[in-house]
């Protein structure tokens, strides 16, 4: 298990991590989402031991990560911009990873390179962005580390390759002790693959929870209540994050169980009432609006 205990990191006047406390359970896929500059990459680099927190602890299986070679050998970090040696081909990078990770599965790697249609003797510098990302993912998976940290790893991959990578992740989780942490701006992608999600904004962790639980505790309620007084009573009884009105139709993003919100609307004499589950993208927008990150600030 990865544990973050009151982790704080500042770069001059920029608070990249603001007293973050969270945990990533083993055998699950954890998604890290956040606004631009929220601190996602910094957090991943602290988890893999590249950056030292100013305060707090980053632990993997109960042991500190920073300057701990034994622990760091079980963590592989894939940057959003993969680095390869100048003029290196796939086989040269494979051989280098084999020196870093004793459990590297060469047979599996060579097999996957062939299946993905990559040329092992071709210089990686001549590959497209998506192909470079593919090589990075295959190197990370075949390193056979317990933890794999992916920073915008799916960016640039076509839909077929994305689906193939998801299948590989699922297969690894089923067959060995494997826990991926995936940072991405593609929230639809994370929604498909992640078991749990952490939401970062301006260095603060707004929430971290299993995705199913997050969705169960927030919904969109649409209703039409003819009596203004009863409508106001219902509004006062709900924990509303966002509300807008179109004619007589009231649309609210509500925190709490869907059943409770729907029952309140019906008890208030609604002639129409329904609840709609939110997508991860809608949840992200709602939560960051509460934190002061509103789309209206960008429009004039």
UniProtKB/TrEMBL annotation:
Ranges for domain ABC transporter come to: 2-227
Recorded superkingdom? Bacteria
SUPFAM superfamilies, per this entry?
Answer: P-loop containing nucleoside triphosphate hydrolases (SSF52540)
Species whose genome carries this gene: Candidatus Mediterraneibacter caccavium
Name by which UniProt lists this protein: ABC transporter ATP-binding protein
Alphabetical list of InterPro entries matching this protein: AAA+_ATPase, ABC_transporter-like_ATP-bd, ABC_Transporter_VariousFunc, P-loop_NTPase
Q: Which SMART domains match?
A: AAA
Listed A to Z, the keywords are: ATP-binding, Nucleotide-binding, Transport
| CDD domains referenced in this protein's UniProt entry, alphabetically | ABC_DR_subfamily_A
Concerning Gene3D superfamilies, the annotation shows: P-loop containing nucleotide triphosphate hydrolases (3.40.50.300)
Single Gene Ontology MF annotation: ATP binding
């Amino acid at each position: 298990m990865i544990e973050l205990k009151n982790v704080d990191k500042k770069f001059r006047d920029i608070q990249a991590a603001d007293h973050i406390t969270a945990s990533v359970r083993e055998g699950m896929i954890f998604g890290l989402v956040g606004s631009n500059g929220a601190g996602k990459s910094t957090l991943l680099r602290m988890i893999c031991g590249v950056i030292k927190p100013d305060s707090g602890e980053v632990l993997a299986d109960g042991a500190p990560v920073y300057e701990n070679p034994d622990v760091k050998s079980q963590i592989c970090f894939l940057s959003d911009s993969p680095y390869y040696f100048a003029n290196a081909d796939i086989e040269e990078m494979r051989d280098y990873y084999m020196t870093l990770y004793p459990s590297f599965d060469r047979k599996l790697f060579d097999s996957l390179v062939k299946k993905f249609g990559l040329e092992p003797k071709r210089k990686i510098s001549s590959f497209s962005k998506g192909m470079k990302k593919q090589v990075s993912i295959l190197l990370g998976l075949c390193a056979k580390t317990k933890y794999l940290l992916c920073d915008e790893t799916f960016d640039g991959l076509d839909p077929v390759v994305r689906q193939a990578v998801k299948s590989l992740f699922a297969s690894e989780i089923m067959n060995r002790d494997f826990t991926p942490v995936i940072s991405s701006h593609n929230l639809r992608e994370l929604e498909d693959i992640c078991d749990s999600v952490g939401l970062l904004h301006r260095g603060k962790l707004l929430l971290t929870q299993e995705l199913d639980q997050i969705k169960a505790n927030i919904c969109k309620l649409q209703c039409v209540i003819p009596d203004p007084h009863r409508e106001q009573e219902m509004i006062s009884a709900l924990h509303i994050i966002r509300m807008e009105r179109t004619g007589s139709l009231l649309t609210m993003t509500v925190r709490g169980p869907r059943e409770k919100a729907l029952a309140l609307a019906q008890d208030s004499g609604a002639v129409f009432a329904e609840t709609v589950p939110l997508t991860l993208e809608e949840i992200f927008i709602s939560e960051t609006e509460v934190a002061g990150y509103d789309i209206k600030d960008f429009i004039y």
